[in-house]
Design brief:
14 copies of one chain form a homo-oligomer. Chain A has four helices and no strands. Chain A is an all-alpha fold. Chains A, B, C, D, E, F, G, H, I, J, K, L, M, N: Pfam families: ATP-synt_C.
Chain lengths: 96, 96, 96, 96, 96, 96, 96, 96, 96, 96, 96, 96, 96, 96
């Protein structure tokens, strides 16, 4: 059972690392974009609707990289292909 | 029982690492956004309501990456799929 | 008893690491937000109430990531699910 | 089965590392580009359509490096050539 | 007695690490807030009382993350739940 | 089979590392170039076509370093010369 | 005697690490606060008394985090609870 | 065959490291040069041809360091002198 | 004698580390405070006495963290409580 | 043959490291020089020939450090004195 | 004699580390103070004597942290208390 | 022959490290000097000859540190005193 | 002879590390002081003698920390107290 | 002969490390000083002789720290006191 346990451990660790490290860049980038959107609105209130739209498109684009990380972490935790493959293999070797 | 203990240990460590490292980026990003919102309000008090709304949407977006991390840490601590799988397996091997 | 001791050790270390590392980002982010709130009040004293409200909402939002870390550390120290599971298991194996 | 397990482990770890580390640069770069697009729109609202087009082309270009990373991570998880090669080999050695 | 000694060692190390690393962020954040409060008072002496109040609330908020760390270090040194649990266990095993 | 497995592992890890680390520089560089292109267009709308052309040439040039990394990662995964050489060798030693 | 020696070693190392690392943040933070107090006094000499009072309160607040570290180091060196517990235990085991 | 495998492994790892690390500097440097070319064109549209020529010469010069890295990586993968030497040696020792 | 030697070694290393690392922050902080004091005197020569007084109080406050480190290093070298305790213990075990 | 293989491995790794790490500084330095040349031409178009000459001399000087690295990497790969010496020695020991 | 040699080695290493690492902060801090003193004199030549006095007091204060490090290094090399204690002990064990 | 091989390996690694790490500082320093020379010429074209002379003297001075590194690397590769000494020694031991 | 060799090795390594690491801070600090002296002379040529005197005193003060490092390195290489003590000891043990 | 080889290896590595790491600070410091000398000459061409003299004195002072490193590296390679001492010792033990 050691192989299964090792894959479980590395999946747990990688899932946590992926989602936490992957939060660093997007959070900083979104903070920067939002900060400059707020300055821009204060400077040109008439263009607020235009600025908001540009901001939300940009935030969505930046957020996408964080979502890639979250997706990979979820795959590792709940749909791990290697875990399933080994589970099947060990089931067969027992069943056989 | 060693496998269970190892998974428990790596889950504990990863949960703490995830939530603490994942707090770095969002906190800095939110600080930046809030800082520039405050400057913007001071510069253009008439647009305060518009600025507040944009700030809160941005904060929510940035906070989401911290919440991903918190969710993963909670899953690791209280709904760990690998832990449950191994518990079942060891229960079967005892029951069998 | 080694398994219990190892989980105790890793929980202690992770609790400390989580709460100390998790204090870095929020403290810097709050410092930045507070610094720019003070500048904003000095620049536009008439909007002080509006600025204070925005500041406190932002501080609460940023503080929340530090509180996630504190909560996880407290869970690890006082309501550690893996510790409890292993304690029960060892109690059963003794009782059995 | 140790070889398969080792490849599974390294693939899991690399997939997570690739997608999380690869999110750092694009997120920061997109944040910078978006920030300066917002400033530019505030400064020259008449050129908004021109600026938006330039921004979206740039964001797509920057996002491409994040997508390279996501693609590599997906290949490692779901279409890993080395995993398949070893699976076939072990199937043959069993079948043989 | 090795288990007890190991837990003692890791608690000592973690307590020191927690309180020293946890001092980094708050000290820098408070320094920034105080610096900008002093500039703000010099710029707008009439708002000094308002600025002082905002400063002290902010300092208290930032200090709170340092206090979390100090509390955890104190818990680890003087009310360590794992230490107590193991002491009781070893007392029972001797008493039994 | 250990040699093959080791080469597979190091190829997997290197492919991920190459493409993720190689995304850092180009993404930041492109972000900078795009940011300053947007500022330039806002400042001199009449030169927009000239600026766009210069921007796209520069982006292509910067992107080329990311593409080198992607190419190397693909070679490592799907056309690895050392893997092929060892496969042939082991085929011969079996065939012989 | 090895356990006692190990605890002594880890206490010595942690005490030094705590007090030296814990000096980094407060010293930088106090330097920043003092620097901006001096600029503020030069800019508005009439508010010197007000500025001095704010500076000293801030310095005391920042210094507190350094004092936490010093206190923990002193506890580790001169009132180490784990050291005392193990000394008593070994005295009992000898006495018994 | 272990020697060959080790050289293969170190060549694979070095090729990836070289091309990815070597992309960092040129990408940042080219981004900076391009950014300032765009600003320069916006500031002095009449000198655009002169500026473009200077930019392309500079980009080529900077790109050359990235190309050195790519060349070395290709040599390591497809024309590795040490690999060839050892292949010949082992062929002789077999042939002999 | 190994225990004594190990404690001696760790004390030597920690003393050096403490005093050298503990010099980093205060030196930078004092440099910053002094730099801004000199600028302030140049800007407002009439407030020189007031500025000098504030500078010296600040320098003393910052220096205190360096002195904490020096004190701990001296304690470790010349009044190390663990060293004395072990010396007594070994004297007793020889005397007994 | 282990000695030869080890030297081959360390030469491969060092060649890649040298050329990739050695590309970092020159690329950044050249980017800075080129950036400021472009600004200078935009600011003073009449001195363009003089500025270009100074730029190209500077680029050549900076490029020289990258060329040192490339030369050393080529020597390590294709004219490695230690490899040749050991090859001769082993040839003699075989011939003897 | 191994214990003595180990203490000698750790003392040598610590002495070098202490004095070299301890030179980093003061040198940077003094450079900053001196730089701003020179600017201040250029800006207000009439206050040169006052500025020089403040500069020298500040330099002495900053230098003190470098001197702490030098003193500790000298103590470790020429008046190492642990070395002397072990020399005496070994002399006694030989004499006895 | 292991000693010779080890010295060869460490010489190869050190030569590459020396020349690549030693290229970092000079390249950045020369880039800064050249950048500011170009700005200076653009600002004061009449002093171009004087500025060029100062620039070339400075570049030569900075380049000297890179040349020290290149010289040491060449000595290590082609005139390594320790390699020669050991070669002679082994020749004597064979000859003797 | 192993003890002597180990002390020789650690002394060699520490001497090099001390003098090279100890050159970092002073070189940067002196560069900053000199840079600002040159600006100051350009801004106020009449105070050149006063500025030069202040610069040279500052450079001497900063250089002193580099000289501490050089002195310690020389002591380690040519007047190493531990080396001498062990040489004497080994001479006595041979003589005795 | 292992001791001699080890000392040779550590001397080679330290020599390279010393001269390459020791080039970092001086190159950056000289680059900064030269950059600001060039700006100063452009700003005040009449003080060029005075500025050049100050620059060359400063460059010499900064270069001195790089020369310390080069001297130590040369001593380690060509006049290594420990190497000589061990050579003599081994000669005596053979001669004796």
């Amino acid at each position: 059972m050691t192989d299964l346990a090792l894959i479980a451990m590395i999946s747990i660790f990688t899932a946590g690392l992926t989602v936490s490290f992957g939060a660093l860049g997007p959070a900083l980038g979104e903070g920067r974009a939002a900060a400059s959107a707020l300055n821009a609105i204060a400077q040109q209130p008439d263009a607020a609707s235009n600025l908001s739209r540009t901001l939300f498109v940009s935030l969505a684009m930046i957020e996408s990289t964080a979502i890639y990380c979250f997706v990979v972490a979820m795959i590792l935790l709940f749909a791990n292909p290697f875990w399933n493959a080994l589970i099947e293999t060990s089931a067969q070797s027992v069943g056989g």
